[in-house]
Every structure is written in C-alpha cells, then in structure tokens.
C-alpha cells in the first residue's frame, strides 16, 4: 500500500494537472460542502459563494493537503470557515427551501421552525451541529474540519442541541 487515501490518489493526480481528477474530487465532495455551507449561512447565495471560494482556495492549496487523510473534512473545513466569514457580515435572513431540507409540504412548518432555531444558534455551535447532524461527519472528522479539539465538538454539540430543544419548546408551547 502506498499510504495514500483514495482521495489522496485523486489529489496527487490533480496536483499534477489532471483536470479530470480535480473534477472527480469536486464531484465527490461538493454536495456535502454545499449542504454544510447552506446550513451555516441559511442562504443559497451565500452557500454558493462559500463553496465557490472554498473550492478555489482548496484547489489552490492542494500542496498543503495530507495525502494520507480523507479529503472531506479538509474541504468542508475550508468551506465552513468561508461560510462563517460570510455570516459575520450583516445578519443572514433565512431562506427556507423544502428541497434543500428534504421535507414534504405537510412538514414544512415544523421544518421551518427547526431551521429558524438553528439559524439563531451561535455560528460556532451551528457549524458543529451542521457537520455532525446534516453532513454526518464523525466527532473526529468534525474536529478536523473545524480545527478544534474533539472535546470542544462534544461540548458545542451538547450545548447547541440543548439550545435547540429550548427554542423549539418555546415555539411548540
């Protein structure tokens, strides 16, 4: 074995100028990166911007990628950091889209309440919930994606979920 992750092989080819490998790498990870960016920003336009900028930055820095590691946490970290930067500008207005959140019309109101509560979370806590729950990263992958210790992932997730519970109890009550 050469010590490379499957993504590492694609990165190596992309570093060598193989456009097909770069396209394949992007195709493998763009959906998760976009979903994370959208969940952090709450707006399609900002999610699009975060993903575009994040992928440009990542592909410009492929020489810094550790070929033995999976690409997903690295690219998601870059995109989420860009999304967090974008939301520190004027406060985002939530654009709810049932197709992004995968809900049916009869569940749209409840889903809107969840998204509204999620958008009111502190961006650092929101990022952890998005990566763990929406994107499905493990605590270790989330820690790597955000550049924080695993214990911080657990505490932010715990606090964020408690905040969400309280926010949703108030609206349900």
What would you note in describing this structure?
This protein has 173 residues and is mainly alpha-helical. The protein has one domain (6-172): Arc Repressor Mutant, subunit A (Orthogonal Bundle). It is 73% helix and 0% strand. α2 (19-41) packs antiparallel against α3 (44-60). It is elongated and about 55 Å long. The protein starts with 5 loop residues before the first helix and ends with a helix.
List keywords for this structure.
173 residues; mainly alpha; Arc Repressor Mutant, subunit A
List the helices and strands and how they pair.
Layout: H1 6-15, H2 19-41, H3 44-60, H4 71-87, H5 98-101, H6 108-119, H7 123-134, H8 139-146, H9 150-172
Helix pairs in contact: 1-2, 2-3, 2-4, 2-7, 3-4, 4-7, 4-8, 6-9, 7-9, 8-9
Give the structure's gist in a few sentences.
By secondary structure, the protein is mostly helical. It is 73% helix and 0% strand.
Architecture, CATH level 2?
Orthogonal Bundle
The ordered string of helix (H) and strand (E) elements is HHHHHHHHH
Q: What's the count of strands?
A: 0
CATH superfamily: Winged helix-like DNA-binding domain superfamily/Winged helix DNA-binding domain
Highest-level CATH class: Mainly Alpha
- In which range does the helix fraction lie? over 70%
Radius of gyration, rounded? 17 Å
Biggest sheet: strands, sense, closure?
A: none
Low-confidence stretches: 90-94
Shape: elongated
- The third-level CATH topology is Arc Repressor Mutant, subunit A
């Amino acid at each position: 074995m050469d010590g490379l992750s499957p993504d590492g092989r694609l990165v190596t080819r992309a570093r060598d100028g193989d456009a097909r490998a770069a396209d394949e790498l992007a195709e493998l990870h763009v959906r998760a990166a976009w979903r994370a960016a959208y969940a952090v920003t709450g707006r399609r336009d900002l999610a699009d911007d975060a993903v575009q900028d994040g992928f440009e930055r990542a592909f410009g820095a492929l020489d810094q990628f550790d070929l033995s590691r999976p690409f997903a946490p690295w690219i998601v970290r870059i995109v989420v950091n860009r999304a967090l930067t974008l939301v520190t500008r004027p406060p985002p207005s939530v654009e709810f889209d049932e197709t992004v959140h995968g809900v049916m019309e009869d569940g749209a109101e409840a889903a809107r309440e969840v998204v509204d509560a999620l958008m009111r979370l502190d961006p650092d806590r929101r990022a952890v919930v998005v990566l763990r729950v929406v994107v499905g990263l493990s605590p270790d992958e989330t820690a790597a994606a955000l550049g924080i210790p695993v214990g911080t992932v657990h505490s932010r997730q715990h606090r964020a979920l408690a905040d969400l519970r309280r926010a949703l109890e108030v609206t349900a009550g």
